Amino acid sequence: MDLMSSVLVKVGHCQEQLSMWNKKVFGNVRWKLTKVRKQLEKAEARSMAGGGNDRLAVLNEELQKLTTLEERVWSQRSKSYWLIYGDQNTKYFHCRASERNKRNYISSIEKAAGVWTEEES
Question: How many helices (H) and strands (E) does the chain have?
């Protein structure tokens, strides 16, 4: 087996291991969130009918953890998106920054008396 084949085999093995790790640690966060939300609705209905609140607290805590995890996943994905397209492609990055500047630009302000002003100070 030559050196390149050996590297490809090792990369393939690494990919398999990372996929298994991802499923064990993260799983399908969106599916878990949907499941916990449904369980939470049922627990809230039982609680309102006079049932215990123990399960409700546990589900709320689990929902909070999953929501935080989902936010992290999307944050990491957005950063990788910007690493791929933003930093390497300056034309793309400049276009996105210009769009954001246009969207955030304030052209006029309403003063207390209800008068609109467009002057810069």
Answer: 4, 2
Tokens of 59: 């589900």
Measured CA to CA in angstroms, residue 77 lies from 18, 30, 57 at distances of 16, 15, 30
With a threshold of 0.85, does the pTM exceed it? no
Name the strand (E) or helix (H) holding 34: helix 29-48
Among residues 5, 71, 4, 2, the alpha carbon closest in space to that of 33 is found at 71
pLDDT tens, position by position, 62-103: 999 988 888 877 776 666 566 565 555 567 767 777 888 888
